[in-house]
Design goal:
The structure holds two protein chains of two kinds. Chain A is of the alpha/beta class. Chain A has 14 helices and seven strands. Chain A is globular, with a radius of gyration of 21 Å. Chain B starts with a helix and ends with a helix. The model of chain B has no long low-confidence stretch (mean pLDDT 91). The chains are: A alpha/beta, B mainly alpha. Chains A and B meet through helix 6 and helix 13 of A and helix 2 of B.
Chain lengths: 332, 81
């Protein structure tokens, strides 16, 4: 039964009521955790030119001061050139120091590109990584099938034509495992700078990434603090506007910046626009009845129930990612 | 055939086979996830020579052991005819 004290579900239910207070609370907690609890002097943020890392950086600057924040740009062979341009614009706006670390050499050393491309070629033999691009997608209609998602690889050939093929298990796993070297290499480099400065690594995942498992374990999922880890994406945008994140960053479509072909987060993982997903997730997480959510969202009750089931499944199957090493096997 | 499918699911997931009834919804019950689905597609191909088309990836074909077995039977019958 619905809790009588619960706010009625509406399209405005997630709008931040007192944004100054929200920011102050986050920054007070950040200072407490980094300075007092972890006894570190500042924060390192990996800046990609995306909305999440931009807001994280803005919060870190407000909490510690610009002179105690280092922005690290971590480009590699597949990065969009926009990422660097936007990240530098952000750094300029907030007056922080930056360092650029190209991790392509490290990734070559790990065999990241080679291992990934070998797997892609096994399913699309015409793929030539020197000139063609690739990305992983989930078809839009997959959520309607009431099954967990299966992934497809799309190769964008040099002439602009595309080929999309469903990935068998071994190839899918190899592509993901190889690509995850990127997030883990970035993490290693961030910790290098953090340790060299006696700073903390300030992580950038938002609530959806944390709760739905859209991060790499010990990659972008590894950090000392995650100031936006409990904020919905639309709330991250609210903070971005309020804190003066450059307009180009706010207007940019969120991408994974992981595969060589441009790939939105929606097509890779979420399968629905952020505004809708925020509200539906909030409705599910807070136990609103599907019929109440359906009315507000303009969906059928069956649609909402299917989406809720999908959320539940995602949360359950990604528990592994959120769980730290289990060690209590023997003794007291 | 149902037992082969059941045993495959049980072995893959460290589940006792008797806990997987013909009508147990393997995805709804959290026994299988997307990796389970991919491994099941592989298994059907290797064990029964059944290749799953994209359009056949629906709950009606893969939701439980009963449906998977029926799907395999239909595919094999279609190839034989």
């Amino acid at each position: 039964m619905k809790d009588a004290k619960k706010t009625a579900f509406s399209r405005h239910v997630l709008k931040l009521k007192n944004i100054d207070e929200v920011i102050d609370n986050i920054c007070t907690q950040l200072k407490e955790d980094v300075g007092k609890r972890f006894r570190r002097k500042g924060g390192v943020v990996g800046i990609s030119g995306g909305i999440d890392s931009s807001v994280t950086l803005a919060l870190a600057v407000k909490a510690f001061g610009a002179d105690k924040v280092l922005g690290v740009l971590l480009p590699e062979n597949d990065s969009s050139p926009d990422s660097k341009e936007f990240a530098l614009k952000l750094a300029e706006k907030f007056g922080i120091r930056t360092v650029e670390e190209n991790i392509s050499g490290a990734l070559d050393g790990f065999g990241c590109y080679r291992r990934r491309d070998e797997a892609v070629k096994r399913v699309v033999s015409e793929y030539d990584p020197a000139v063609d691009k690739m990305k992983i997608v989930i078809p839009e209609d997959i959520i309607k099938r009431n099954l967990p998602p299966v992934h497809y690889v799309t190769v964008v050939f040099q002439d602009g034509s595309e080929k999309t093929v469903r990935l068998p298990m071994n190839e899918y796993l190899q592509i993901v495992a190889a690509s995850n070297f990127k997030q883990r290499s970035r993490m290693s480099m961030l910790y290098y700078h953090a340790e060299a400065l006696h700073y903390c690594v300030i992580g950038t995942p938002n609530k959806h990434e944390v709760q739905q498992g859209f991060f790499v374990k010990y990659g972008d999922g590894a950090a000392d603090v995650m100031p936006i880890g409990n904020l919905y994406k639309t709330q991250v945008y609210e903070l971005a506007e309020y804190m003066g994140v450059p307009k180009e960053i706010i207007e940019r479509t969120p991408t994974t910046d992981t595969y060589s072909a441009e790939q939105t987060q929606e097509e890779f993982f979420y399968q629905m626009p952020f505004g809708e997903m925020d509200l539906l997730w909030y409705g599910w997480e807070n136990g609103y009845p599907p019929e109440e959510v359906a009315t507000v969202m303009g969906l059928t009750e069956e649609d909402v129930m299917r989406i809720f089931k999908n959320f539940e499944r995602k949360k359950q199957t990604t528990e592994y990612l959120r769980t730290p090493p289990v060690h209590g096997y023997y003794g007291v | 055939m149902k037992d082969k499918i059941r045993n495959f699911i049980a072995e893959t997931t460290f589940t006792e086979p008797e806990l997987i009834k013909d009508e147990t919804m393997i995805f709804d019950e959290g026994i299988f996830d997307s990796m389970g689905l991919l491994s099941l597609i592989n298994f059907l191909e290797e064990e029964f020579g059944v290749i799953t088309d994209d359009t056949e990836l629906i709950e009606e074909n893969f939701g439980n052991v009963e449906r998977i077995a029926a799907f395999v039977e239909r595919k094999k019958a279609a190839v034989a005819s």
